[in-house]
Amino acid sequence: MGSFRLDRQTTDVKTTAVVRTDLDGYEDELRALLVDYFVEANEQGRAWFDDEEFGASPEEIVAADLERLASATIEKPLFLALHREKRTEEKPAGSIQLKRLDETTAEVKRLYVRPSYRGRGIGRELVESLLAAARADGFETLRLGVAPYHESARSLYGELGFEFTPAYDESHAPAEIRDDWGFMKRSLTE
């Protein structure tokens, strides 16, 4: 699955393709993406909650994420949007992750598109690719938590059939922010 656009300045066709993979071979790229994600999320969270102490060390969270992905119970839990800049150069433009909660339920994690690639439909491509893969893997339900300041992600998830629900037990959202956090669910059997 990929999207194409014509760059009016150079008239080169640029492409972005979503690949489903495991961590092998992509650890450095994913580490950089996730650090960017958490730095941005921490800044947004500080502003939203008016709390300069909001957030955690991006390096610590990223290390835990990479460890979780390396030991995932899903064969290929990572979806990367790779943007081809030149014939041989691909840059990661975004990512999303799938985490097994139980035999029929999975959790959507860490949708992120780098700012320079936003507005091109890459986030939608990532989520749609994840939806198709989760369905093919036999999952019946997807769950996720989304920050109140991630309005674009909330909107996209809603457009793709996710609905707001109460918090779920497996969520790692701290108790002090759960009332502000959005929890969503989508059936894959309908």
TrEMBL record:
InterPro entries for this protein: Acyl_CoA_acyltransferase (IPR016181), Bact_Acetyltransf (IPR050832), GNAT_dom (IPR000182)
Pfam family, one: Acetyltransf_1
N-acetyltransferase domain mapped to chain residues: 28-189
Keyword DNA-binding: no
Keywords: Acyltransferase, Transferase
UniProt-recorded Gene Ontology molecular function terms: acyltransferase activity, transferring groups other than amino-acyl groups
Protein name: N-acetyltransferase domain-containing protein
